[in-house]
Amino acid sequence: MRSLLLAVVFALSLTPSLGAAENPRFALVIGNAAYDGDAALANPANDATDIAATLTSIGWSVTRVINADRKTMNRSISDLRNAMSAVEAPTALLYYAGHGVQINGANYLIPVRETFESADDVRNEAVPLQSVLDMFATAMGATVSSPRRF
User: Fold this and answer.
1) CATH assignment at residue 49
2) Which SS3 state, helix, strand or coil, does residue 144 take?
3) Which residue, 49, 54, 132, 133, shows the most beta carbons closer than 10 Å to its own?
């Protein structure tokens, strides 16, 4: 199991670029930095705050979450999915800065205030990136494949 700093930016839209009034834009911005001990990170909270401010300034509806535990991350994801489901043709953007882990090709976002001692702990207690993407796609009436590597 390898740990890495992960920054994910993922945008999904079902329609061509339309004006904000015609194409509601939603962003979930998560910055996790307050990990225990040596795992603590310096920049994710600041980066998430800057990204959220920028997106807000250009008309996005932004949910900003800083130093989220698993329950907070999952609740934020569900709330955003519900908001997106209530409108027609939304655009979604996920920005995540914090620790992430890849196990057997699956990517996981690591919440703060969790302890992982094995790959099974990660599978059970972290937030699978694919499940986030799937929830967004469901809210938009689409399907999403795994994110592309750049």
Assistant:
1) 3.40.50.1460
2) coil
3) 132
Domain range spanning residue 68? 2-140
| Helix and strand totals (H; E) in the chain | 4, 6
Which residue in 1, 5, 92, 2 sits closest to 43, CA to CA? 5
Give, in degrees to the nearest 5, the angle at Cα 91 between 9 and 46: 35
Those residues with Cβ within 8 angstroms of residue 55's Cβ, 6 or more apart along the chain or in another chain = 25, 27, 29, 62, 93
**CA–CA dist 128, 101 (Å, integer):** 10
Tens-digit pLDDT profile for residues 42-63: 999 999 999 999 999 999 999 9
Average pLDDT, the chain: 83
Number of separate domains in the chain: 1
